[in-house]
Amino acid sequence: MLGGVKPVPDEFKDCYLVLWDSQCDFCRRSVGWLQKKAPGKVLALPYQEQISWLPEEIFEDCQNQFYLRTPPGNFLAGGDALIILLRVVGWKSLSWILGLPVLRQLTRLAYKTVARNRDFFSRFLFKSS
Q: What CATH number matches the domain at 11-125, 3.30.70, 3.40.1000, 3.40.30, 1.10.3470?
């Protein structure tokens, strides 16, 4: 399908990049919220449009969880990505707390629970559009 390592487009190399599922209403609303709360701090792109350069395993897993690509080129997924993203958007104290070892595990678990039940949680976390 993808085969081999492909270069990241130059315009994405030096930014925090959120890769999200454009077919998921919960994800769309989350990205909208993120862009309102932290305009210009991250670039959010639907993963489906990034097949030309994303590593195959990340592209395939993006249907299960969002990914954050950091400027140095690291890919973080799910709860780990959320913790770093909170720091990037300015919520450093919350990021630090959730990054503590026990809370990091709980953050991962909570993220997986929400990700598996996106439609259900979307009804409670977002106003109807």
A: 3.40.30
Calculate the alpha carbon distances from 37 to 55, 67, 71, 114 in Å: 29, 19, 21, 21
Chain center to CA of 12? 15
d(CA 117, CA 126): 14
Q: What is the pLDDT of residues 72-119, one digit of tens each?
A: 999 999 999 999 999 999 999 999 999 999 999 999 999 999 988 887
Radius of gyration over every alpha carbon of the chain, rounded to an integer in angstroms: 15
**Paired sense of beta strands 67-69 and 75-77, if any:** antiparallel
Domain-wise residue ranges, the chain: 11-125
Report CA dihedral (28, 86, 10, 74) to the nearest 10 degrees. Answer: -110
DSSP summary character for residue 12: G
DSSP class of residue 84 equals H
Predicted structure pTM score: 0.85
Q: Which two tokens stand for residue 4?
A: 């081999």
